[in-house]
Amino acid sequence: MSSPEPLVRFYDLSGPKTWSPACWSTRYALNYKGIPYSITKLSYPAIRPTCEKLFPDMTGLEATVPIIEILGPNHKALNNSTPIAELLNERFTEEAGYKHLKGIEEVKKYEAETASLGLALLRWVIQDVWENALDPNDGSREYFKKTREAVFNCELKDVTELRGGGEAAVIEDIKKAWALLRDRMKGEDGTGEPTYLDFYDAARVKWIEASSTEKHAKLMNLYGDDTFTKLMKKVEKYTMMKGKLSRGL
Ligand SMILES: N[C@@H](CCC(=O)N[C@@H](CS)C(=O)NCC(=O)O)C(=O)O
Known about the structure:
By secondary structure, the chain is of the alpha/beta class. It has helices at about 20-35, 45-55, 80-90, 105-115, 115-135, 140-150, 160-165, 165-175, 180-185, 195-210, 215-220, 225-235; strands at about 10-15, 35-40, 65-70, 75-80, 245.
């Protein structure tokens, strides 16, 4: 059976595995809704030129992935994962046979409530991302090292220690920052219908998984309970890569 013609082009980061948490949120949204899509992998240095090509007016926009293009006569390009999820619901409706993705509104609030989580996770795995998740041959590693070392004002390998106070302290920060997930999963058994909130959290787990097997194992047992097992069970069906792959710029 031939696969259906893509209706969306999804720009993801290059690398041996899908790892970017924001890109995972979009991938989950596409898979959940059942939209046929193609994937264009971009190196870090190719993100800005691709954005400038797709968005002639970059005012107020950040040059980031994920980006999607809705293909066909009502063409539209957009970046930023949460607005992308909203647009996918708007354009691919239940009336037209696509599932409605719930929980997008809640993610906006949740993002603010768990604001310190992204930084704590980054402080934990930044060196692993560089070593294991990035494409070693397309300039991504050089770009990542240069830009992130400028932000943290130290070498990548020293970020956990110097900016996070060491691994134990960083893990404590993650535990505190993700307590809302633990509370949410207490009332679940991992078999319910996933919402965008679940995909948002699972995307962060996939980020750690692609970066370090050892840290992923620690994360899965962060609270010494089944919080993360239930979360990942809930989203499992929508994790498989479904898009056709190509390389951008
Ligand atoms: N709020 C954005 C954040 C996206 C984001 O930060 N993407 C990173 C990759 S994980 C990026 O494209 N960075 C570009 C750069 O560092 O130049 C979203 O949710 O899509």
